[in-house]
Write a structure and sequence with these properties.
2 copies of one chain form a homodimer.
Chain A (H helix, E strand, L loop, with lengths): L2 H18 L14 H14 L13 E4 L13 H16 L7 H7 L3 H5 L2 H13 L4 H14 L15 H12 L3 E9 H12 L6 E11 L6 E10 L5 H9 L6 E4 L5 H8 L6 E8 L6 E2 L10 H9 L2 E4 H4 L9
Parallel strand pairs in A: 1-2, 1-5, 2-3, 5-6, 6-8
Antiparallel strand pairs in A: 3-4, 6-7
Helix pairs in contact in A: 3-6, 7-9
Chain lengths: 330, 330
């Protein structure tokens, strides 16, 4: 090959590369042109620029996201609880004897007050009966079926349409910039895995969540893993850093949440050395979504609001910072 | 750019590609030209050829490997136990009062019989005292220090030199063919993470292992995760499919082990639909490595040998199938 043709090859490669890169395209089109968007982009540019003193190698670009209230909505109740109630009702129709307690009877009858009277133990009872006795694969198939037909009681939208378009763009932007994006949720790991890949582009092994007992048996000739009920790990509050260390084995450099259940995850992430980013989604938009913070029983955000500024965490104001809310609508 | 220069560019690119691809190179040079090597390559070619009826998309190409006795040696004792004993001795020199039981005293004195008299509970006591009271990061740094200086009592080699060269080639080959390679070990997750990336090219989040209690605290202002001791999850036998499902969330298509502790992992992996591969490393080479199977207290392989043929699992005969054993020597 001649020097001339090698030069031509170089020129052709450069031309092709230029065509492939949509220079100046906005990576976050559903974010308004506010300080929040600018802070995110400035951070990503700092840690991905090899010439920057804050450059972070790809292997260390780990970003963690809470799910409920951060990637999709969580009002008027966690969607997983709505799922559990529907499963309970449908099982009870086939076999009313499973309603063996007042809490379960109230739940199956749609009596929310009677259901809440059982407190946390009552909720765990409902989750248990709807989440056990099947393999994780069967459970995920059931959850997928439900998500494909059930609709939100307030908006009438499918639940996966109530993921936040700006957050989907943020996940994609970070991955395009060499980040690994994980979900770290107080919700059940199998429930989230049932839709995370399709909804967020996050595969099962990048989901960290609360976990129940499972067991393995090959009795009868067919090896089976079964969800046995109970809770072995609660991935919330202090549990989030613990779950991250167990599953990922490394401290993230970017963490996003929306409630005080995410406080420790943000605290631990941003206490590491080098460039770190903590972000809180603040539910300020009662018109397009739901407005709640310090007084909410679901997704309460109180300490996080008090301390975000001093800790250097970005508080995203949904009403101000997002031009669009739902992935499934305008 | 002219058509001519575009053609030149194409030719140059083709020439560069031809240079970059070592066509017909043996992906497993330390495997002899036996049926074992042929079976592995035939499987990989079947599942990666889009024209094959057994084609498996990249996202589903998950391969799991036991560690002790499968990726590195495990005789005369698990290397993690040798590490624990060294840590115990060095801590006891600084503070003899930590030797609070007969088992710990025997262990620190190198009295193996006295140490084994404590049974499994005694071994857990030794692991506990040497594996707790520090953060996972500190623990991993200690393990790395030890691995960089300690040597094997029999061979005099550093422990990471006693990884198996044929298995390193297999890991690399699978990754080159789009597989994700995980370790699924009965050993402690943090101990394995301390060297898996350097030794095997396997990052922390692709290590599944036994787990102890950890807790998070930010008291005193600095957020810390601490290894509290105890065992919360044993990733052995029936625990291996459970650990895989928890960490990976998906059934692998390829599993490799060497002892009956891996039986359920192979059983569950190969019971899935579509193409599956189960592989047992059989320690037949007393001259170059160690020869043991049905009667060994460490890495006992009995049921696996009985059932491998009927289950279609490949039994690798180290003496026959490997031209080289150690990564760190000939």
């Amino acid at each position: 090959m001649s020097i001339t043709s090698l030069r031509s090859a170089g020129a052709a490669a450069a031309a092709l590369c230029a065509l492939a890169l949509p220079a100046l395209a906005d990576p976050l089109p559903s974010w308004n042109d506010t300080a929040a968007e600018a802070a995110i982009i400035a951070f990503v540019e700092r840690v991905t620029d090899p010439a920057s003193g804050d450059y972070v190698p790809e292997a260390d670009r780990i970003a963690v996201f809470d799910n409920d209230g951060t990637l999709w909505a969580e009002q008027p109740a966690y969607f997983q609880l709505l799922f559990a109630l529907d499963v309970l009702k449908s099982r009870a129709e086939a076999d009313p004897s499973i309603l063996s307690s007042d809490v379960l009877k109230a739940a199956a009858a749609g009596d929310m007050a009677g259901m809440m009277a059982g407190g946390e133990a009552g909720l765990l009872e409902i989750l248990d009966i709807s989440h056990s006795g099947v393999s994780p694969e069967e459970f995920m198939a059931t959850a997928r079926d439900w998500l494909s037909t059930a609709t939100h009681p307030g908006t009438g939208m499918p639940f996966t349409a109530m993921t936040y378009q700006p957050m989907l763009e943020l996940l994609r932007y970070l991955r395009d910039e060499g980040f690994a994006t994980y979900i770290v949720s107080g919700g059940g790991i199998d429930f989230i895995r049932s839709f995370a890949e399709e909804a967020y582009g996050i595969p099962p092994w990048q989901v960290v969540g609360s976990e129940g007992n499972t067991s393995y048996s090959a009795e009868g000739g067919t090896p089976l893993i079964t969800k046995d009920g109970g809770v072995t790990f609660i991935d919330d509050k202090e549990g989030k850093p613990v779950g991250i260390m167990r599953h990922i084995g490394q401290r993230p450099i970017f963490a996003a949440g929306n409630s005080d259940g995410d406080f420790q995850m943000l605290e631990w992430t941003t206490a590491g050395e080098g460039p770190r980013f903590g972000m809180i989604v603040h539910h300020t938009d009662g018109a397009r979504e739901f407005a709640y913070d310090r007084e909410s029983s679901i997704g309460r955000l109180d300490r996080g609001l008090d301390e975000a500024e001093a800790r250097g965490w970005l508080v995203v104001d949904m009403a101000q910072d997002w031009s669009r809310v739902w992935a499934g609508g305008e």
